[in-house]
Each structure stands twice: as C-alpha cells, then as structure tokens.
## 1
Amino acid sequence: MATPPIGHRTKDFRKLFCGVRKKLQKIFRTQNEIFIIPSSATGAMEAAIRNCVDKKVLCLVNGAFGKRWADIARLCEKDVETVEVEWGKAIKPAIVERKLRHNKFEAICLVHVETSTGVMNPLNEIAAVVKKSGALFLVDAVSSLGAIRVEVDKLYIDVCFTASQKGLALPPGIAIISVSERALNKSRSVKSKGFYFNFELLLERAKNDEPLTTPSTSHIFALNKQLEKIEKEKMINREKRHYQLSKLCRSLGKSKGLEIFSEKGFEAPTLTCFKNTLNLNTNALLKFLDSRGFTISGGYGPLKGKTIRIGHMGDYKLKDIKLLFDAFDEFLKGL
Amino acid sequence: MATPPIGHRTKDFRKLFCGVRKKLQKIFRTQNEIFIIPSSATGAMEAAIRNCVDKKVLCLVNGAFGKRWADIARLCEKDVETVEVEWGKAIKPAIVERKLRHNKFEAICLVHVETSTGVMNPLNEIAAVVKKSGALFLVDAVSSLGAIRVEVDKLYIDVCFTASQKGLALPPGIAIISVSERALNKSRSVKSKGFYFNFELLLERAKNDEPLTTPSTSHIFALNKQLEKIEKEKMINREKRHYQLSKLCRSLGKSKGLEIFSEKGFEAPTLTCFKNTLNLNTNALLKFLDSRGFTISGGYGPLKGKTIRIGHMGDYKLKDIKLLFDAFDEFLKGL
C-alpha cells in the first residue's frame, strides 16, 4: 500500500495489471475477463445489475446482502422479484426451482456467503438450477472468494465478484469482477449502463491491459503481493485452513455456551455467527475485545444485539481464534 | 496508506471521517455536504449526472474531460447538448450565454482545468452565467481543487468534485464530492440513480458521519494527514506556489523553444501544455525523463505526439521544475 503510485497508462503499469489479472483468474478458477475497479463490492453488485439486466431479475434473499441485491436492482429501475428465506437459513435449490417453473428471468442474483448471518448458500446446487433456466448467474462471492474455492467456470457463474478486504485480506477500496462471454454479450444490448461500471468500455481497455479510469495503484501493488503469497500457500491449503478455523471457532463458542445462529450444515467457513444465548451486552463485549486488539461484529441490522459474528477469513491462524476466546473468557469472568 | 484499516462502522472511524469531511469543507470553501467514495473522478462525474439530471443537460466541451461529461450523460440516457470549443481554447462566458438564451437545461457541466489541454476555463464568469439561467452547476475540479482556490459556495457550484491524486497529491483511489442543498433536492425527484452513487442514500449515512458502503480506509487515513499538512502550508500559500510553478515552467519551456499550447491568459496553474514545436519524438522524451525519475505526459488522445504536458500540482517545489528542465536539456543534447 505504501509503494508510490506509477502512471496508469505506462508500460510498467500494464505489465503489473496484466499479471494481477492472470493471477486472479486462477483464484476465480476462470478464463473469463477480470475487471478491477476502485469501488466497494456494492459497486460491483450495481455493475452486474446495470450490465446484465434489461428488465426482469430474480434476487435470492436470506440476509442483508441478498436484500441489497434487490434494493440495487429496484434503484436501477429493474423489474425485481425475490425468493425470501428466513435470515439464518440457507436458500435451497428446490425453492429456486419452484420459482423458476413458472417464471423467466434474465438474471438470478445470489450471495454465496451471507456476511450478515454466517450462512453459506449451496452454490453448486443452486448453480445447476440456474443453468437449466438459461438465466445469467450473478454471484456475490465477497466473503468466500480468495478464502475458499469458488469454481466460476465449472458452475457457469456469469458475474462473480469480491472486494479486497475479505478473503484476500487486503485493505478495502477495490472490487474485482469476473465477467463471462454471455454476460458481455448481454451487456451490449442493455441500455443506461452509464460509464463507470460499463462492461463494454471496461472490456475495450482490458484488451490492452489497461483500466478504464484511474485505478487505485496502491491496491494493485498490494494485491499483486498478496496473490503471490496466496500462490505460495496454495488455495487448497488456504481453504483447509479456513475450514479448520471455523470448526475451532464453533467448538470454542459452543464450549462457552453459545449456539450457532446459522442453519446446521450451511455454516460459513469464513465467519461464524452465534446466537447471543448468554444474553450478553454485545456493545460491551465488542468494546472489551477491541481493547484487547480483537475486532468482531454484533448483529447486522435487524439482528443487532441478537447475534455475535466472528470473522476468520484471510490470513488468520488457529492461534488467533484461541487468543480471541481467551479474551472472551476474560470478559465473561469480569461480568 | 500503510496504516492498518479499522472497522468503518466504529466510533473511531466516524470521528476520523467527520474530521476529514470538515477539513475538506474548508478546502472546498463550502458549507455543503461532502461525500467520499471509493471511485475515480469519472465515477463522481457519473454521480453528478445520475443525481442532478432527469432529462436535459448541457456539457461544455474543450478537451477530453469535457467530452467525458457528454459521453457519461449520453450513456446514462440523458438528453445531451454541448457547446464545443477548439481544444486548447478556453470556454468564454459569452458562448455559454448565447446557448442559454433560447435553451433551458436542468444542469450545466464544466471542467475547471482541462488536464488534456492545460486550459483553465474562466470559472467565475461562467458561474455567473449559469446562475442566471437557474440550472444546476456541476464542476469537475480535478486538476484545480486542493492546489488553487475553488469557491464552491461563492460561485453557487452545486456539485464540485476532485480525486485524491491531483491537487491533494495522494495516491489515486477515492473521489471527493461536494453537493449543495439544491442538488440534493433535485436528486430526490430523479429516477434510476442506482445505489452506489445515490446522493439520497449517501446523505442518510453522512448525517451519522458514516460512509454509505465500505470505504478505502487507507485513503481516508492518508487524506487526513495530507489535509493537516495543507492547513499548515495554508491554501493561500499553496495557491501562490502553484502560480509560481506554472510561471517558471512556462518560461523554462519557452527558453528551450517550446510554445504554449493553451490559450494565452487561460494557462492552468497546475499543469503546462506545450506545443511540440521542436518536433521531438515524445515517446523517446518521456522514456528518457522517466529514466531520470520524472514522469510527464504526451498529448492526450487526438493530441498524441503534438503536445507535451507537465503536471506541477500538489506538493511540487520550484526546484523540481528546474531539475526536470535540466533533464530535458540533457535529452536535447543527446539528439
């Protein structure tokens, strides 16, 4: 992040940008085009909607970020339908299949791992249902990609994106988006895409290894470094580490009397969401842990006070989780 | 940039964010709301168009970034008219006044300093004409704000924006936008604004000193530091320094046989654009200077090979310009 910026229309930058995008294709497990944009993941959601939906879109909602898909699509004046499932439960392929039996959509939007509830939706199974329907598949992989395997090509994911600060464990500031040929084709016929998130314009520049507009060069440098580190760790080990982290986190939480909020069998390997079964003052807990160097989260939106979320994605080690629960113990003893 | 990120929904971040926005209001010379978004300045342009124009917009074009205003507005499906002036010439208030005599627009878009031609458009005089017309005034102040004074409130600029990497001399990655009450009101009635650049949503969060979506915390830390430095230098001295830099740059260029490309009396204090009167191979020149540690630019778009642009905004000192021309001399001698 501290590397001084270089001109983004220079040969050196093009080389860096090309290398980063190639490394990202490996992480995304795709041959698709990769765009990197100064933006949060919300911008990537909007990009997916603006480029891939002319009228009718289906949003699968079981948490705050699924709801965001729908909010964005409505604010882009699209004709939005939703499949809604109780927060904390996973979206099952059957309910999607039922919806698709009598309805046709240009695109279907899913959040892979719902950061608000700690639920990992069954991506593979839903992907199969979406594929049969012929709709474009738009996937928010913010809290999964870079931490666990997301098979973009094998699952025919047309638009898949993440941000820098989750599985890739970098500071926030950029969104990374893979876009299929089908999505690019669709984009050509969709109007009112604007400029900033326009896949056609992004593609034109990407062919020449250039960003569309001024990039966050600091993030590109950092991303390059981090992708080298991930290559060294190997994705298979990185994924394994995340499953170990979540297993440990769940079991330590349970040993303190906390229950898991997320539906059994669908717990995310990247974050754990506990019910606040101990009726703790979550604000006080967060403040105490912060004073010990740990940042965790309370409930998101309507779950405020009702859940405790512990993120363990990126570069965390088992030891970090143990130390976190030591501090948690200290908090309990002080009550 | 290297400060480790903190949670953006924490009290510490809100305090930082509030302080930065207050310092920015001083630089923008405004009481208006300030939004900071992970985005390039192009995104800020799109934000201005999407929020402030329902149908009819006038774009004033005398270079690549004026043209971008028009491109963006067209891609957002707005009804766009332009006033076009030869690249290298300034837009005079009279031509705008003529256009407005028989046409009504919801908004009028101007680039203050055209980075592609080194021309500074007469902002004060155009502002007076726009004010009379009742249209919203949207100003790209990318290559001026933070280096020289831009009087947002005094000139009734409804949307004014810059990016981090120009007058503020930080790495690129964020856009900073001031938005007037009138622009916020207009925004409420405009449809298809989307989510990411939506002034209504940004405002709702800003009231609580929060960003709408995950911010680039690294840039916010850096911006805070840099704004403290600017307060110490004082804007009046910073502006003076930029006028000295441009004067020196022009005179050293002329002494080497280069003519100024930009119209006399409208030369930007932040960058100098020379005609390539010596018929130099600009690629070779740029490469040579780069090897000496200086990054300058050739002609932008249709001016490729025809102009040489030297940016001298941000934290540059007179000595830097002298050293640059020493290297330029070295290049000439080597021909």
## 2
Amino acid sequence: MNGKIGIVGLGTMGMPMARNLIKAGFVVTVYNRTPAKAVKMAEEGAIQAMSPRDVGATNPIIITIVSDTPDVENVILGPEGVSQRLRPDSVVVDMSTISPEATRNIARQLREKGCHMLDAPVSGGEQGAIDGTLAIMVGGDTKILDRCRPALEAVGKSIVHVGSNGMGQTVKLMNQILVAGNLNATVEALMFGKKHGVDLDTAIQAIKGGAAGSWQLSNLAPRILKRDFRPGFKVSLMQKDLNLVIQAAEAKRVPLPATSLIHQLFNSLQTASEGENGTQALAKVLERLAGLQID
Amino acid sequence: MNGKIGIVGLGTMGMPMARNLIKAGFVVTVYNRTPAKAVKMAEEGAIQAMSPRDVGATNPIIITIVSDTPDVENVILGPEGVSQRLRPDSVVVDMSTISPEATRNIARQLREKGCHMLDAPVSGGEQGAIDGTLAIMVGGDTKILDRCRPALEAVGKSIVHVGSNGMGQTVKLMNQILVAGNLNATVEALMFGKKHGVDLDTAIQAIKGGAAGSWQLSNLAPRILKRDFRPGFKVSLMQKDLNLVIQAAEAKRVPLPATSLIHQLFNSLQTASEGENGTQALAKVLERLAGLQID
C-alpha cells in the first residue's frame, strides 16, 4: 500500500501513468481540463478533483504532465493552480517537457511557499508510459527525489538524478537534439537508398546492429516503410521541444547547425498540416524535396 | 581445413582480417604495398606475394581491402593487378568502401574474363576486424556469395546479401549517412549540455537507453569526454566516404540537407589537420564555433 498522489493532466502520457500508479497501490487523485478523461479514471479507481488547486490541497505529491510551458505555469501557479492551497513541504513533480528557465522560476515560487519541485521529464513515448518503462531525468534536491521515488518507480524504469532544478529539462532537451538528429539521418539514409534502388528492409537489417545503429532507425524506419505515420510522438510536440532547444541554445550562444536545419524541416511539415502525425512523417519532407516516396 | 585465399591490403582492417583467416585454417597469400606488413604476416603463417597479380594467379578467392576507388581499380585492373593472371571462375571480393558506380564497372570487366566480383564493404571498425565481428553488406550473385561465405564468416559476424553488384557499396553509404548524422547529433547535444552546466557523464547514462540512443552516443561520447581522439575510424576516411555519398546523391538528385552540412563541418576538421584523428574529433569543430571545450 502506497500513499496519496495527485496527477494533473490525463493526456497520452498522463492517463497510462495514472493507471500504473493505481496499479502500484497509490490513492490517486486526478484532474484533467477535459473532464471526460477524469471521469474515466474515476471509474478505474481514481478520485476526481474539480481543479488543480483541489489536487494540491489534498496530496503531498502532485505530478503535472501537460503540454507546454504556459500550461505548466497555469496548472501550478494560476488562480486555480496546484500551488494555491498546497500544504507546506508538499512536492510538485513536473513531468512535462518545458523551458528549463521557467522551471527554475516555478521552483523558486514553490520554495517561497515552503514547498518543493522536481523537474522530471520523461522519454519513451506513449508505449513507455503504458508499459511503465519511461526513462526519467530528474532535476532538484536528491532528498526530495528519494521521497518521490516510489511514485516514479511505478511509472518509469530508469530514474536518474541529473542536477538541480531545471537540469532535468536541460537533459531532456539534449535527448531531443539526439532524437531529431538520429531521425533525420534515418530519413536521409532511406531516401538515398530508395533513389538507388536498395531493398530498404534488407538494408536496415544489415546495418542496424553496427555503428549506424540507433533507436530511431530500429523503431521508426520500419514504420516509414509501412507508411505508418501514426504518432508515437507528435510532430507538434517535437517542434515545441525543438523551439525550447533553439531558445535555450540562443540564450547561451550555443551554435547547433544541424539541429536548426532539422527544426526548419519540421516547420515544413507543420505548414503541410502534419503536426498531429508522428515524427517519422519527417520522411515526407524529404520525399517532397526529392520528388519520390521512400516506399 | 579451409582452402586457399588471397588478401591484398594489410592496413588497419586487412591485417586483423588476414589473421582471422589464418586462424580459421585458410592458406592465406598476402600482398601489401609497404612490404614490411606482408613480411610480418609471413612470420605469422601467411605466404607473401610480390604483387596483386601474383595473388590473383594462385588463389580462387581474392579479398581486396585498400583505401579508395583508384586504389581498388589499380590493385584489381592495373598492370600489376589481381585480374592480370586470374584463373577463370575466380572471385574478387572487394571489402573496401568505394564508388558503387566504379564497383559495377570493375565487376563487368571481371565478368568479361570469366570471373566474378562481390562488393562486400564492412562496418565495425578496427575492433570489429580484430574480433572478427564485422558487419558485411554484400552485393553480387548469391551463388558466388555462398562460395565465399566460409571466408566471410571468418572475419565477420553478420553477412547480409543486399542486392546485385554495387548494392553492397550503396548500403555502406547509407550506413555512413547514419554514422555521420548520429555522431553530429551526439556532438551538438554534448555542446548544448556543456554550455548549460550539465554533468555530461550522468546525462549520457540517463538518455542512452531510450529514444535518443545510438551506437555513436554510447561509444564515442565517452571518448569525447575523455578527450580521446585516437581513431577507431579516421576523419580522412569518413570524408572519403561522405564524398562518395555526395557524388552518388548528386548523380540521382537526392537532396541530403543535413549530411551535406555535416560533410562541410568535417571539411573544417581536415583544414585543421585533424584528418588522422577519429571521427569523434568532430566535437572540436563545434567547440571552435562555440568557443568552449566540451570537457
């Protein structure tokens, strides 16, 4: 039997995380902007709250997992936000991917209320959330992390403390630089092979186990070949993250030549109304440039 | 007890491959432009030949593994080349990485002599050659591949037939597009993290098992952090390969936006006399752009 925990945000990631917390024996209070999902979770054993504020009032640990920086600021600091009736020494664990700078600001405001924050963004996508195998990068105090570890272990497989508040988000942005670069390399390699008449399935088998190997190649190239563009991870969310990367890079004057280029290629996808597709739809940009489908 | 085999080229890759062939029971005849290495192999049980032509005259299967397209053309087709005294039905297995177009041309000329060719470029680097665990991508006739399989199994772990002559090289170039893209993403992510004060060792541990994971991240990022720029795979050879990629892409009008950019970044490394370093020295280009060492 575990303790009480709140969760704000029942989207693609939040919903399966709530289920895994219930399964692990937590008493889970949920809030979602669209109530239908909270009603659904109440049927599965959760307590439905009417606002983030109410979640904060009744739980010592509150997970927020929503879309973007303003959403997180709103559900934590807004007039109906978690922080409004938070009891002293409570912990807000933000598992969204948002600005490291905004994270440090939220952490400071929670500290002024005698509370704590962890930034704990995740990698592993919807499937990882369902399986409870997310990789979690945590910024914040290690003692506070220890307090939250049972909850994080219910939703993730790898929980790594990477530094103070904001550092979890910074490492997540490193993660996204790699995801974007490896995916784009996959797409360029497939297009190169296609135009040269290569049997792409066979080629992937020949090279994925060696120095060219990556998660993106092994997992997304086969979907591209099947023209399965359904989201694991949406283009619109990738662009939200790459915007955060570019802003943070700008602030510290870090030149990111290829990441910037790939960000622009994803812009082309959004212009073409592909934002709700999975990131593997990046293949379509190169297909348009090359005037040929990969498969 | 296996049969007779010749090998032309005892460089970083050829030497350990010759050793593995001897170990597997082949009678190995060797030739190398610089004789000292052939003398060394003779001490280890090989037969030293005085020219590629002599290797061709006495062996039913001859492996060539030299640097670039003109070198392969020379050791196979040149006046002292393997093809000059080749017996009918012999097989030349070129394991260098060279132009797919030139490969098809060589194969045609060997066919006119009643002989065969396989293009069988490898991935896995010096360590893979030493361990006999290379990944081999083979273009050519499958019956000819079957004839050469015992020799290839002595030097490699994965042997995949990917199509007709030239296709082995084309798939190897796909491999190099991925290697370059994944390495550059690794370098950009590390620089981003460094400028934001991230503990990079910890960050790599946190993300390498997930969607950001790649062979390049797992194997080369730790070397960059130790400032170990010794070659697994040299910058100059990577540039030779990326030149082949760009040429082949140009021939088929394949746009490769990021690969072209990364090719230019590697040019900067060669200008700075870093050609003999390992490809992970790409970190130094970004370090110069950013005015900061990664570690």
